[in-house]
Design goal:
The chain is of the alpha/beta class. Strands 3-2-1-4-6-5-7 form a seven-stranded mixed beta sheet, sandwiched between helices.
Length: 359
């Protein structure tokens, strides 16, 4: 079984060599460990330091953001026959020795995605600024509300995936990927598990390219979350907006009606009638838009099934992993798949592929 460790890096020459060197090469049930550093347009010696430490370096000609670098790393790992993939940052905040902890739930079939959690165990919580901690808390609440599951840390960049999970994942944001991955895989029914680890709360060298500007980070991340949620739950979003608008129309109509019953005249509140009619028309248009978006999302699901099969046909034969149990597939389903029988898909986990688009 092969493990690929993906490390996106931008100007991390001071720490990347040590991070690569500390990745364990001998892990129970893992036959081969390969480290892939994605140099996201660095202007220093990041690529050379990573190569000197024994990593395979994938150099991007321009800076594409953390999300873009992760996408490129995932695709390269699949091309090289990875059965399991771990990604962690190159700044040294995470301890590579914790990689086996993240792999354990994958190997037992408990999860398709395992993420390190900085806040699951109060004794392991790192030191960080109050604003950054509050921002992480708010993001976790938002993702938990949208998915219907309780997560403590949705912004951590230390995660592990099965090969099948990568086949299913469809991420579009280039700025970041962390919260979008939770939404994407949760809506597909892929089991997600958090594992508490101890991390450094602040960088040893330099500054974070993601969280250095909290308001900007919050804006870009919120935009990615909103788009992702609308993609998968358009009627829930647009239907709610339509309901609020229609409620406003009803309130104004009720106000105008009670005024007419008391005075036998619409004057001087004819404005309420015109505004109510406009809001009712707007609410109806939003509702119809939601219906159309919902129809398009169904088409997208079918397209993703096709993309999943294409990726599976392309990458799965490169390396077979008989020891990995794919969550969400029972023995009967697996038997139908082996014999090529129809109806072998699972309702709990829709097939999906990785894609890259501007956020």
């Amino acid at each position: 079984m092969k493990l690929c460790v993906i490390i996106p890096a931008l100007n991390e020459e001071a720490s990347i060599g040590r991070v690569v060197g500390e990745v364990p090469r001998k892990i129970d049930r893992i036959d081969e460990v390969e480290v892939i550093v994605v140099d996201d347009g660095s202007t220093d010696r990041t690529a050379q330091c990573a190569a000197d430490a024994g990593a395979l370096v994938l150099r991007l000609p321009v800076n594409r953001g953390v999300g873009g670098a992760i996408h490129a790393g995932f695709n390269r790992a699949l091309e090289r026959g990875a059965d399991l993939v771990v990604n962690l940052d190159g700044d040294g905040q995470f301890n590579p020795a914790d990689i086996p902890k993240l792999l354990a739930p994958l190997l037992t079939g408990e999860a398709g995605l395992v993420t390190a959690s900085r806040f699951l165990d109060p004794e392991l919580e790192p030191e960080m600024g109050a604003l950054k901690r509050y921002g992480n808390y708010c993001m976790s609440l938002i993702i938990s509300f949208l998915t219907g599951e309780r997560y403590r840390d949705v912004s951590c960049g230390f995660r592990a995936y099965t090969q099948d999970t990568l086949f299913r994942m469809n991420l579009h944001g280039l700025f970041t990927y962390t919260q979008e991955a939770f939404l994407d895989l949760s809506f597909k029914g892929v089991p997600i598990k958090e594992v508490p680890v101890r991390v450094r709360g602040t960088r040893e060298h330099g500054h974070s390219r993601i969280a250095s500007n909290i308001p900007y980070y919050a804006f870009r991340t919120s935009k990615i979350i909103f788009r992702s949620f609308v993609d998968y739950k358009p009627m829930r979003v647009l239907g709610s907006i339509s309901s609020v608008v229609m409620l406003g129309a009803l309130v104004l109509a009720g106000f105008l009606l009670q005024h007419y019953l008391r005075t036998d005249s619409f004057t001087p509140h004819k404005w309420a009638g015109f505004t109510s009619a406009a809001l009712a028309g707007m609410g109806l248009l939003i509702f119809i838009t939601g219906l159309l978006a919902d129809m398009i999302s169904r088409v997208r699901v079918n397209q993703e099934r096709i993309l999943y099969q294409l990726r599976k046909n392309r990458y799965a034969p490169l390396h077979h992993a008989p020891g990995v149990v794919i969550p969400g597939k029972n023995e009967q389903t697996r038997g139908r798949q082996e014999h090529g029988e129809p109806g072998s898909g699972t309702a709990a986990s829709e097939p999906i592929a990785i894609a890259v688009a501007k956020d």
